[in-house]
Predict the 3D structure of the following.
Amino acid sequence: MQKRKPGFRITLNSPAVLAFAFVCVVAQVLNIVTRGGANAYVFSVYRWRLSDPLTYVRCVCHVFGHADWGHLLNNMMYLLILGPMLEEKYGSKNLIWVMLITALVTGVIFMIFFPRTALLGASGIVFAFILLSSITQAREHEIPLTFILVALLYIGEQIYTGVTNSDTVSQITHIAGGAVGTVLGFGMDRAKNSR
């Protein structure tokens, strides 16, 4: 019988989150290679003709595009910290649905309310993950105090920033992402508890 050698090995612990991060990095490289064309045509959302199929692609794919490496790294740090814990609790399939629904909701809200600007980046998903992670220990008919505090601090900070800053676009996206994470989190917990 052969003894296992002591040591460490790298494991693929969070396939959905790692795949999302990988696609974001590829989108950033494509954007650099195309000198901004990839973000303009695929990886940002803005109001456009509904007859154009790319309008629907952009409505979801805007979460992959980022303005620069700093923007990308900031979002990826949060996703890679929170994502594995959430993926372990809810499963890869459910977390993919959270990301997809968050992208779609924030994209549609943005197209309706901000017709003259473009949105890109994964911050809506980051804020969905932040609020989703604060309810991971919730039990049936209970709301964790940590969730209430995170929600109050988070929404309060976003409202304050929106009032004191001329750029209210990202704050609305963050609030929408947080709302999606909250609703889906409580829904997934309720479905899990009812089994």
